[in-house]
Structure prediction request, 142 residues.
Amino acid sequence: MTTADDHTLLRRAIALAATARESGNPPFGSLLAAPDGTVLAEEHNTTLTDRDITAHPELKLARWAARELAPATAAETTMYTSCQPCGMCEAVIRQAGLRRVVYALSNEQLLDIRPGSGRPPVPQDGPALLDEVRAAVEPYYR
Prediction:
């Protein structure tokens, strides 16, 4: 359930999406807010101008939070974003330990706006060589 305060911060994320579009990038914008609504950081999509397919605002903010905020502080932040984070961004948000994400447009709604834009899944084969990989990975977690 979103609140009037959430809507205010979502409107800022939407404005950041417009900034991205005006600079020639896909129209996505995001911000991180403290529990009191103070904006901690803002980003917009720069995938085209940076020539970096990972330059999504959600990913950039999650990386910033993991690098710049104490884990306890990150765990209290909310990300406001113009569109629901993609799978890549969602994974990084989870790793950064953010408390909550509030978005304006769902991935399903986005696909209705830009049909046919999805890429086919990349085939994956595995698991394989379990004993070998376990020998490399397991000592890290012990």
Helices lie at 4-22, 57-68, 71-74, 87-96, 107-113, 130-137.
